[in-house]
């Protein structure tokens, strides 16, 4: 394969921030090209272990030949069940590098990119039932407008939803190029097209639902002193992670004890660090990454 599967963002900062214990048990819930996983293994001693999850079986082409490494082909929302299965009751650190890999964007037939004509798919888990075409052709106009506004931050979400519903009443929208044409977003407004595709991708893969489930499992599994490092790529997931790490709960409610002391299971270590200009120059896709790290008390 000639394609670069992925270039990990903020690799050094993430690995340093995990403060890896050589004999510890670690989880990389987003294996992808395995860049972060390899670096974690590089910091583990012979008694340490790393579990890496990915819901996309394509990631297995990057498998690591190492007895300290276990790959789990699964959505990370089932993290707790899988660690139970392997007899792991506590972990020393967890990394989540959210979203899609370069491989997803650069592999035309997966349908993640408006740059290539392809079936309108966008499933990270290729065995999942629902594709982007299913959503575009069956959701109500209101629901489409909602996801475009919420997940794509598209102020024009209502107009786009209307255009899609008009187009699909004539002919089903089954391919990326059909979606581009039906949206009526001019080709030169590529940022808007990218946001439209992002919004659909988030809905297809229930990215925020999976993230919520994983955060709660990670909080409960982390041993005292264990660290969670999360790389986010858009404001909605970043806000969710930020509020969760501040409060320790999904509502983001800060609870206080009788004396007014804040009750939270985490100490914040990194509060939204961004990639350096040097890294962005080498890897422009790191531009939107934000790193948040917390330590379990
Ligand atoms: C940004 S890439 C990770 C890249 C990786 N850190 C590296 O160094 O190559 C995200 C990966 O996570 C996977 N992924 C995204 N959401 C997931 C989920 N809910 N469960 C499991 N894997 C997921 C994607 O399939 C993709 O391979």
Write the layout of secondary structure elements.
Layout: H1 11-18, E1 25-28, H2 35-42, E2 49-54, E3 69-73, H3 79-85, E4 91-97, H4 102-106, H5 132-138, H6 141-152, H7 157-170, H8 176-183, H9 190-204, H10 207-221, E5 222-232, H11 235-247, E6 255-256, E7 262-263, E8 266-274, H12 277-282, E9 290-296
Parallel strand pairs: 1-2, 1-4, 2-3, 4-5
Antiparallel strand pairs: 5-9, 6-7, 8-9
Helix pairs in contact: 6-7, 6-9, 10-11
Helical proportion, percent range: 25-40%
Side by side, the strands of the main sheet go 3-2-1-4-5-9-8
Order of helices and strands: HEHEEHEHHHHHHHEHEEEHE
Radius of gyration: 20 Å
The count of domains is 2
Description of the structure:
By secondary structure, this protein is an alpha/beta fold. The chain has two domains: 182 residues, Rossmann fold (3-Layer(aba) Sandwich), CATH 3.40.50.150; 76 residues, Putative methyltransferase TM0872, insert domain (DNA polymerase, domain 1), CATH 1.10.150. The chain contains twelve helices and nine strands. It has a seven-stranded mixed sheet, with helices on both faces. A two-stranded antiparallel ribbon has the order 6-7. The longest helix is centred in the middle third of the chain and has 15 residues. The radius of gyration is 20 Å and the shape is globular. The mean pLDDT is 97. S-adenosylmethionine binds next to helix 2 and strand 2.
């Amino acid at each position: 394969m000639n394609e670069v599967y992925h270039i990990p963002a903020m690799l050094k900062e993430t690995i340093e921030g995990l403060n890896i214990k050589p004999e510890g048990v670690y989880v990389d819930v987003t294996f992808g090209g395995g860049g972060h996983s390899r670096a974690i293994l590089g910091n583990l001693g012979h008694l340490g272990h790393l579990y890496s999850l990915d819901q996309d079986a394509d990631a297995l082409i990057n498998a690591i030949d190492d007895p300290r490494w276990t790959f789990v082909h699964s959505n990370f929302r089932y993290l707790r069940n899988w660690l139970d299965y392997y007899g792991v009751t506590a972990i020393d650190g967890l990394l989540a590098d959210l979203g899609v890999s370069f491989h997803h964007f650069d592999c035309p037939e997966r349908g993640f990119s408006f740059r290539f004509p392809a079936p309108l798919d966008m499933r990270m888990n290729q065995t999942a039932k629902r594709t982007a075409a299913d959503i575009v052709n069956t959701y109500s106009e209101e629901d489409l407008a909602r996801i475009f506004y919420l997940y794509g931050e598209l102020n024009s979400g209502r107009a786009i939803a209307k255009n899609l519903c008009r187009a699909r009443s004539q002919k089903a929208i089954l391919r990326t190029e059909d979606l581009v044409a039906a949206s009526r977003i001019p080709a030169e407004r590529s940022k808007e097209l990218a946001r439209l595709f992002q919004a659909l991708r988030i809905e297809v893969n229930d990215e925020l639902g999976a993230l919520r489930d994983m955060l709660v499992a990670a909080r409960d599994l982390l041993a005292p002193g264990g660290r969670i490092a999360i790389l986010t790529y858009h404001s909605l997931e970043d806000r969710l992670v930020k509020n969760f790490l501040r409060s320790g709960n999904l509502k983001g409610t800060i609870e206080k004890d009788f004396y007014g002391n804040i009750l939270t299971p985490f100490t914040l270590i990194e509060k939204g660090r961004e990639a350096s200009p040097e890294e962005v120059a080498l890897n422009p896709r790191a531009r939107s990454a934000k790193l948040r790290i917390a330590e379990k008390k």
